[in-house]
Amino acid sequence: MEERSLRITGTDKTFFNRITSTLTKLLIPTKIGINGMLISIKRNNLLKNFENYTYNNEGIDKEEIEKRYDSAYEAYLASLDKYVMDSIYKKVKNGTASEFEKNALSQYYEVTSLKENEYIDYKYRKQKYLIDLDYEGIKVGDKEKLKQRYNKFYVSKMDSLYKSIFKNYSIKIADTTSSYDLTKESIYIKIFKTLEDYIQNILSLKIQIEENNFDDIINEYEKFETYTIGKLDTKDNIEKNMVLLSISRKLFTHSIPLIVAEQCYKKLLKDARTLVQDTKIATKREKVYSTLINLMEDYNVKLLSTKVYWDSSKEREEYKTFLNKYKEISKLKENDFVEFIKQKEILLIKKDMNSLNGEKIDYSKLLKHCVNTSFAILSYSFFSCISLYIISYIKIKEVA
Question: Does 119 reside within a domain?
Fold first, then answer.
């Protein structure tokens, strides 16, 4: 599809310009009507070819069916793009647009701005934007049969587009060249934001319309829903992103491979450590510390236990030792829960310290906050673990 400029220019308020503006406003409804009919025709053709493409039609040339589907899809997107150019843009320019149309044009600018520097991201997000634009209109309509047909296409295509977007981000995260080093922080944010969008808008719809069994993720999905209500602080956002990563391990195993998920966990661990140090109120700091421990457990037990390829045999053996110790400690859970919690935290913190590899982290601030806020109000296990954390760090520095 050929891109056309969307730059809005001012107009002189002369007599002829005012007449032209008035005529344009009168013609806009006609433009919308024509574009609406074209979109409807292209959409129906798309859905027919999509259904033919997804059905198990034996004896039919699959390559030809796929070719027809791709052609119908391109024509459908072109009609939606023309609608934005001919209708929404002109309505915004002439001051007759609704809030929805203003927001739609703003989002269009946002997507097209990616074209020059992030073409791959632009390519997939442009498709996603146009499909979402049409879907919003279908959702509020009264054609139930159309909704049912379109939902199947929508979920299928969005799955494909999100996977492509994640693959693009994963390549950048996994790349070790300096060209991506400065942008990795923003890519982590994009991954978490895109995961959230998918779970809110696509996964929720899949759960409604598909007969697939989602038992393996339904608990995590319900946890995620608790973070969609109210204003979230930094701790809440870390916890929400931890849930998103957990869900991604089941939905996007190939698009967000383990090596990338591992780096995302490390990013969250770094954020949680920093937050523990920077939180001055003792009760809030204890909650953040609990989040850090949960994150360590998720990373070390849930994620690393699925890791097949290790950088070295030594690293693999060290992890096996850790996992065996964790399983041994877990036996205490039923008979002595307090001791189980204490030993688990000590084990996780030791493991975390060993993974820092000399990374400079100033834990003296944490100790200072603990003293200034009456450290006695914290649990004994919390005190023991943080002390061990600081002592271990000092020893590592001395050895270095």
Answer: yes
